[in-house]
Amino acid sequence: MKIRLGKTRKNEFPFAIGIPAIVWQVLFFYLPLTLLVISSFLKFSATGAFEGVTFSHMKLFLSPTYFKVILASFFLALSNSILCLLIAFPLAHYMSFAGRKYRNVCLFFLIVPFWTNFLLHVYAWFYVLERHGFINTLLLKLHIISEPIQFLNSMPAILIMMVYYYLPFMVLPLYSSLERFKFNLIEASYDLGASFGVTFRRILLPLTSRGIRAGFFLVFIPSFGEFVIPELMGGDKKMFVGTVVSQYILGEGTGSLGAAFTFLSGIFLLITTVLLYILITNLLKPRIYHG
């Protein structure tokens, strides 16, 4: 009887440890999300009195104008994810194989920006990208340009800042996946006559697909609703999902409209995430090589 009780307590111990995390998730994720969805269908008067359920908030956002805003956020998030992947994969590959003795230094410089305030990063990039900043000064001294280039308040400035900020979210999952990769598989592929391209496509990419997917969606999902970077680096010239949501949520008497737009953009994000997951999984699926 004592042995059975002991086994039962051991089996229940992991569940008991996870209870606080479950409670936290319910209180601060599922409950606010449920209230958000409900409030998007509620109608209130100018005085704040409840008037009933309505679908007018949803109809307002089913227009080409707001659809373009959602598409702009989608392409921004997709571009940021692809650029981060293209930069992060070689870096994670170097840290895992060629530069093993420098990997701790690389990880340190990769993580150290998180120790400082995010707004400091943004304003630091202001001094780099402004008309008389570091990049323009360097290009002028090298006689590459004859007059300063306007980098700020543009899409390139937004993408530069987003890649800079979200790059660690891509590097770390890739590094974790590549660190467990057995390098002798690549050597065996070369010994069997496979080229670098074939080895990369049919061995390295499929076997690191979990890290690629994890990094891609860690960047893609928060980038879709990004508000601060487009607002500060883009000069409020282009509207994105985060901009519209913040304007309605922070506006007086427009909270229900903000909840409705958040709900619709969330559904779009969910659908596109599932489709991208299927696409990436099929692209990275191992295939039999003939000849």
Count the beta strands: 2
- Principal-axes shape call: globular
Assign the structural class, choosing from mainly alpha, mainly beta, alpha/beta, alpha+beta, or little secondary structure: mainly alpha
**Helix fraction?**
over 70%
What is the straight-line distance between the termini?
63 Å
Order of helices and strands: HEEHHHHHHHHHHHH
Based on CA atoms alone, the radius of gyration comes out at: 24 Å
Report the sheet-strand fraction: under 5%
CATH class annotation of the largest domain? Mainly Alpha
Strand order of the largest sheet: 1-2
CATH topology of the largest domain: the name is MetI-like fold
The mean pLDDT is 84
Low-confidence stretches: none
What does this structure look like?
By secondary structure, this protein is mainly alpha-helical. It has two domains: 1-39, no CATH class; 56-283, MetI-like fold, CATH 1.10.3720. The protein is 74% helix and 2% strand. The protein has helices at 2-39, 56-61, 64-98, 103-111, 118-129, 134-141, 155-179, 184-191, 196-207, 209-224, 228-233, 241-250, 255-283; strands spanning 42-44, 50-53. It has a two-stranded antiparallel sheet. A hairpin with a 5-residue loop joins strand 1 (42-44) and strand 2 (50-53). Helix 3 (64-98) packs antiparallel against helix 10 (209-224) and helix 12 (241-250) runs antiparallel to helix 13 (255-283). It is globular, with a radius of gyration of 24 Å. The mean pLDDT is 84.
